C-alpha cells in the first residue's frame, strides 16, 4: 500500500515538473518576446508623440 502511494506521489510530482519546465503546451500561444523599451518601435513612436505634444519649459531651446 505504501509503495502504491509512493508511486502515485512520484508520478504526480513528475507530471507537475513536466508541465512547469518540460515541453511546450499545445494550444497555448507563445507570448510576445520581451524587448527593451529602446528597441520597441511602438514605445519609441509613443514617446516621440509625447515629446512633440509637450510644451517646452525652456524658452531658449
TrEMBL record:
Biased composition (Basic and acidic residues): 42-61
Region (Disordered) residue spans: 29-61
Protein name stated in the entry: Secreted protein
Species assigned in the record: Amycolatopsis rhabdoformis
Amino acid at each position: 500500500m505504501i509503495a502504491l502511494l509512493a508511486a502515485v506521489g512520484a508520478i504526480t510530482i513528475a507530471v507537475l515538473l513536466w508541465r512547469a519546465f518540460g515541453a511546450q503546451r499545445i494550444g497555448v500561444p507563445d507570448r510576445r518576446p520581451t524587448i527593451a523599451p529602446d528597441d520597441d518601435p511602438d514605445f519609441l513612436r509613443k514617446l516621440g508623440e509625447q515629446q512633440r505634444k509637450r510644451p517646452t519649459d525652456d524658452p531658449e531651446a
